[in-house]
């Protein structure tokens, strides 16, 4: 039996760090390294940062809280996720998240299949590891056409 070989190792300070839609991400595993089976990113959310309500039409999205707490809106409920909590969202489910605290939060974002990390890169600005841009507001970019290309639809409540 032939084995798929796409094992790799990523150290704590490796990966691509990018500011996209105002949030700081570190791309740990991308589709190139995983044969498009999944991607993994870490995000650091300062107070007030997050993502509006949206739908992923193609991939599963999962979150694992590393530090702090994050408020999630999932379909018609709100969940406050804390350190080591895990949330999984299927395609076409409404979700959004925000750091509503006064402290920094960190979480892992897992996508199956890969592709969202490409949107994050195309939509964002690569920054040096460990550094934050002097004015994060200038990095806030909304790209509805780019999001649509990647199957992400912003959801507006009526």
Polypeptide structure, described:
The protein is 11% helix and 43% strand. The chain is mainly β and 158 residues long. The protein has a single domain, classed as Jelly Rolls. The strands form two sheets. The protein has a seven-stranded antiparallel beta sheet with strand order 8-5-10-3-2-1-11. Strands 7-6-9-4-12 form a five-stranded antiparallel beta sheet. It starts with 15 loop residues before the first strand and ends with a strand. 25% of the residues are buried.
SSE layout and pairings?
Elements: E1 16-20, E2 23-29, H1 31-34, E3 39-45, E4 50-56, E5 60-67, E6 69-74, E7 77-82, E8 86-89, E9 94-98, E10 105-112, H2 116-123, E11 125-126, H3 144-149, E12 152-154
Main attributes of the structure:
7-stranded antiparallel sheet, about 160 residues, Jelly Rolls, 3 helices, 5-stranded antiparallel sheet, 12 strands, globular, mainly beta
Please name the CATH topology: Jelly Rolls
Strand neighbour order, sheet with most strands: 8-5-10-3-2-1-11
Assigned CATH class? Mainly Beta
Q: What is the SS-derived class?
A: mainly beta
Radius of gyration: 15 Å
Task: List segments where confidence is low: pLDDT < 50 over at least 5 consecutive residues.
Answer: none
Helicity, in percent? 10-25%
Got a strand count? Answer: 12
State the domain count: 1
Do you know the CATH architecture? Sandwich
Biggest sheet architecture:
7 strands, antiparallel
Q: Which geometry do the CA atoms define?
A: globular
How far apart the termini lie comes to 53 Å
| Number of helices, where a helix is a run of at least 4 consecutive DSSP H or I residues | 3
| CATH homologous superfamily placement | Jelly Rolls
* Proportion of residues in extended strands: 35-45%
């Amino acid at each position: 039996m032939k084995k798929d070989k796409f094992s790799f190792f990523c150290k704590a300070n490796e990966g691509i760090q990018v500011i996209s839609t105002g949030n700081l991400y570190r791309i740990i595993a991308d589709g190139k390294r995983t044969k498009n089976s999944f991607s993994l990113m870490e995000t650091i959310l300062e107070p007030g940062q997050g993502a509006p309500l949206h739908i992923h039409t193609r991939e599963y999205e999962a979150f694992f809280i590393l530090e702090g707490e994050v408020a999630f809106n999932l379909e018609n409920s709100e969940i406050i996720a804390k350190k080591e909590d895990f949330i999984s969202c299927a395609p076409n489910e409404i979700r959004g998240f925000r750091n509503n605290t006064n402290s920094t939060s960190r979480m892992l974002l897992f996508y199956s299949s890969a592709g969202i990390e490409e949107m994050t890169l195309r939509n964002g600005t690569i920054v040096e590891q460990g550094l934050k841009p002097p004015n994060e507001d200038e990095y806030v970019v909304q790209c509805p056409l780019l999001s649509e290309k990647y199957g992400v639809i912003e959801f507006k409540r009526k």
